[in-house]
């Protein structure tokens, strides 16, 4: 097995992302994907019945709407949405996030629809 000696520069990877709400895989960790995305506007309400979802805000501001209330994150802050909890990410300004999820987790969870996209390698 070959080992890469090159670190992943998050800012460099983010500069390659043009499309909003499209997750891009930048690394793997066991059976998990480390993904980046740029967000702006409101996503769809959805759940992930089989997994938690980790959001880390790199830049901007992210509101994660929950039925129980909102969680507001700024740069350097993270929040874990527990499995099965309905949520809706909202970014009033362009916001860059890092997500950690099991391989194959769809961005729209069990909701589906036109915004559903599998993570693409970057």
Topology readout:
Layout: H1 10-14, E1 24-29, E2 32-42, E3 53-59, E4 62-66, E5 69-73, E6 78-81, E7 87-102, E8 120-121
Parallel strand pairs: 1-8
Antiparallel strand pairs: 1-2, 2-7, 3-6, 3-7, 4-5, 4-7
Short description:
This is Cupin domain-containing protein. The chain is mainly beta.
Question: What can you tell me about this protein's structure?
Answer:
- By secondary structure, the protein is mainly beta.
- It has one domain (35-121): Jelly Rolls (Sandwich).
- The protein has 1 helix and 8 strands.
- Strands 1, 2, 3, 4, 5, 6, 7 and 8 form an 8-stranded mixed beta sheet that branches.
- A hairpin with a 2-residue loop joins strand 4 (62-66) and strand 5 (69-73).
- The radius of gyration is 14 Å and the shape is globular.
Please tag this protein with its features:
Jelly Rolls; 122 residues; globular; 1 helix; mainly beta
Number of strands: 8
What's the rounded overall pLDDT mean? 93
Helix-strand topology string: HEEEEEEEE
Residue fraction in strands: over 45%
Second-tier CATH architecture: Sandwich
- Roughly how many Å apart are the termini? 22 Å
Rounded radius of gyration (Å): 14 Å
Taken from the alpha-carbon principal axes, the silhouette is globular
CATH fold label: Jelly Rolls
The first-level CATH class name: Mainly Beta
* Fraction of residues in helix: under 10%
Number of domains as seen in the coordinates: 1
H/I helix tally: 1
- The CATH H-level superfamily is Jelly Rolls
Largest sheet: 8 strands, mixed
Structural class: mainly beta
Poorly predicted ranges? none
InterPro entries: Cupin_2, PKS_Associated_Protein, RmlC-like_jellyroll, RmlC_Cupin_sf
Protein name: Cupin domain-containing protein
Organism: Microbispora rosea
Pfam families: Cupin_2
């Amino acid at each position: 097995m070959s080992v890469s000696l090159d670190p992943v520069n998050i800012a460099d990877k983010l500069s390659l992302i043009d499309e909003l709400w499209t997750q891009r895989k930048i690394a793997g960790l066991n059976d998990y994907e480390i993904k980046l995305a740029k967000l702006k506007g409101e996503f769809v309400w959805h759940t992930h019945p089989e997994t938690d979802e980790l959001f880390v805000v790199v830049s901007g501001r992210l509101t994660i709407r929950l039925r129980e209330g909102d969680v507001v994150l700024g740069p350097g802050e993270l929040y874990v949405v527990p499995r099965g909890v309905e949520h809706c990410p909202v970014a009033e300004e362009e916001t860059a996030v890092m997500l950690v999820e099991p391989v194959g987790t769809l961005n729209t969870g069990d909701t589906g629809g036109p915004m559903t996209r599998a993570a693409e390698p970057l």
